[in-house]
Amino acid sequence: MNMNPLSVAVVVAERTLREEALGCIENLPVRVVSDQRSLEDMEDLLDRVERSRTDVVLLEGGLLRGPLDEFARRLKMTASEPVIFILQTTAVAENILEAMQAGAREFLCPPLGKALREALERLSALRTEQVNTQTKKLGRIIGFISAKGGCGATTFAGHVATMAAKQADKPLLLADLDFEAGLLRFILKAKPRYSLRDAVDNMHRMDSSYWNALVSRHDAKLEFIAAPEELTERDLPDPKQLGRLLRFIRTIYPITILDFGRCHSEVALDTLPELETLFVLVTQERLGLENASEFFRTVQARAKGAERIQIILNKVPAKQKPDLAAIENLLGMRPAGIYSDDSEALYETWSEGRLLGNESVLGRQLAALAKSIVTPQTSQNESRTAANKPSGSNSAGNNPAGKNAGIRIPSVAAIAEAAGFGRLLNLMRSSRA
């Protein structure tokens, strides 16, 4: 029987079981992603299983300190939902019954060769069928972050999520990951009882029922979870636990919108590999461009996620045509969109306790962005059409950006030049000379 590749985590201490299991695996298209002889740190194993998308855990009976059904439940909440094969030196009726009741797929005893191979072949066929029928598709996560305070990430996240929910078939999630300010609750006029801190700190209890108790429903198709409100709860979350939470969220929602607040956010850097796109909002101010450059430099140093970043140029005056070539030269990529400065409309809507609508220019631009997120293929076709037209307005979509091959780090002088500070720098240089 032909097998498609599988990934396996081995938790076996007994010598005979280990030798037979590993001997069988090395002759099959099976990749060992974790191999350990004890289970002292369950959280570490769950994190490895999550990150490597493990298909099966080979677990020696007796190594697990807690209940097997709880371990099986925790595994089921990971993205790949790995199955459990229990390996034991002798077949004890009580142990077999306990394993089957807990949800273990197989209970195997030596000699393992043929029995383990056939069990892996059955699992491979099942996994292939699941992939082919797309029985489970992970959702997409879109993030917004400001190059500096006031660039508009929270405004974009709140409006885009609300507008996207009106166009979506299934409920979406809006999550506030700005652990410094957490302003989304203010924009949405929400009074949530729980926050992301409660979710991150209770990943060991996380399942769909527990999650439903944490989130609040903002609209018919939009659920919301806030950043911590109390200062004592605003410590940055553990990166591993936050990553597991986002992977859990992807199993529930087709689209999740995240607000990271301002640049230099460790939370944004830690979660970037989980995101489909991170929109970095900049204006034409020098400080914002410098911060964006520093953020890109940090992303490159971590060597992961740079291709997921796109630039949004925000707060552009109606009669001004920005120098996109200069921005591309200094930031290494062309803005994915240009958005109008509509401060007056924002002030009016917020003072009335509502969000922007189609009556404002920025409201229409944000609605178009929301549509591009809900129906990306349709929006890509529209962007190709728009890209062939002369750019003469500041509306979103007239300056689409495709996949960015990489980020080039500009010098501070280049940033200053593009921001209109070239003369000042030249004067400083001449005075020093």
3D architecture notes:
The chain contains 18 helices and 13 strands. With 433 residues, it is an alpha/beta fold. The radius of gyration is 26 Å and the shape is elongated.
Characteristic terms for this protein:
433 residues; alpha/beta; Rossmann fold; 2 domains; eight-stranded mixed beta sheet; five-stranded parallel beta sheet; 44% helix; 17% strand
Biggest sheet, open or closed, and with what strands and sense?
A: 8 strands, mixed
Query: What does the average pLDDT come to?
Result: 81
CATH topology of the largest domain: Rossmann fold
Can you give the helix content as a percent range? 40-55%
Q: In the CATH classification, which architecture of the largest domain applies?
A: 3-Layer(aba) Sandwich
Poorly predicted segments: 383-433
Adjacency order of strands in the biggest sheet? 8-9-7-10-6-11-12-13
- What is the CATH class of the largest domain? Alpha Beta
Instruction: Domain count, please report it.
Output: 2
Strand content: 15-25%
Find the CATH superfamily of the largest domain. P-loop containing nucleotide triphosphate hydrolases
The radius of gyration is 26 Å
- Report the total helices: 18
Shape: elongated
Distance between the termini: 78 Å
Structural class: alpha/beta
Quantity of strands, as a count: 13
